[in-house]
Design a protein that fits this description.
Strand 1, helix 6 and strand 2 form a beta-alpha-beta unit. This protein is α/β, with parallel strands linked by helices. The protein has seven helices and five strands; from the N terminus they run αααααβαβαβββ. Helices cover 52% and strands 15% of the residues. The mean pLDDT is 78.
Length: 192
C-alpha cells in the first residue's frame, strides 16, 4: 500500500512541477497511470494472498473500489478535456478558414498535428527553425504568394530579418479550457 501511494504522490508531484515545462498542466489520464499498473497488480496479489492472514477482506474491497473509481474519474476528466479540445480546435480552424490567405505556417509541432481538419482547406506548413522558414518564404515568393498566416508566433521564427516579411496580428484565439489553444493569428506580407 505504501509503495502504491508513494508512486501516486510522486507522479502527482512531478506532474505539478513539470507543468510549466510542457505548458499543459497535470494530466491524470490512463496513459499517465500505466507506470503504476505493475505496483497495483503486486498490491492486488499481495492483498489476495494476505486476505486470510492479516488483511481483512473489507480492505481488499475498499482498495479495489478506489482503483475502479480512480479509473472512472480519470476517464471522465480525460473525456471532458477531449471534448473541449475538439471544440477549441474547431473554433481555431474556423478562424483560419475565414481568412483570405491561402497558406498557414507554424513552428509548433503539436499545434500543426492537432489542426488536421484544416489541411484540405489550407496547407498547414511546419517551420520550427529560421532556415526552414526562409526556404518556405523563398518558395512562396517563387510561386507568387504575397501573404500567409502564422500561428503560435512565439514558436515560429518570424523575427529573422532575412525573411523580408512584415507581420501583424489579425486575431487572437483563446481557449476556454485548454490554455494550449491560446495563440495569435498573424497575417504576414512578403516584401518584394
Amino acid at each position: 500500500v505504501l509503495a502504491g501511494l508513494s508512486f501516486l504522490l510522486m507522479a502527482m508531484g512531478l506532474g505539478l512541477v513539470t507543468q510549466s515545462v510542457f505548458g499543459m498542466g497535470l494530466h491524470v489520464s490512463p496513459r499517465k497511470l500505466l507506470p503504476a499498473l505493475p505496483i497495483w497488480v503486486l498490491l492486488a496479489l499481495a492483498a489476495t494472498w494476505a486476505r486470510d492472514a492479516t488483511m481483512p477482506g473489507r480492505w481488499v474491497a475498499v482498495a479495489a473500489t478506489l482503483l475502479v473509481l480512480a479509473g472512472i474519474v480519470s476517464s471522465a476528466a480525460a473525456g471532458h478535456l477531449l471534448l473541449h479540445q475538439k471544440s477549441e480546435a474547431a473554433a481555431l480552424q474556423d478562424a483560419l478558414r475565414r481568412r483570405p490567405e491561402r497558406l498557414v505556417v507554424t513552428g509548433d509541432a503539436m499545434l500543426s498535428q492537432a489542426l488536421t481538419g484544416i489541411w484540405h482547406d489550407k496547407p498547414l506548413l511546419y517551420a520550427p527553425r529560421p532556415a526552414v522558414l526562409r526556404e518556405l518564404v523563398d518558395a512562396m515568393r517563387a510561386h507568387g504568394v504575397r501573404r500567409f498566416l502564422v500561428l503560435a508566433s512565439a514558436a515560429t521564427p518570424i523575427q529573422d530579418p532575412q525573411l523580408a516579411i512584415q507581420c501583424r496580428r489579425v486575431e487572437s484565439h483563446r481557449g476556454e479550457v485548454v490554455g494550449y489553444w491560446d495563440t495569435d493569428i498573424l497575417s504576414c506580407a512578403l516584401w518584394p
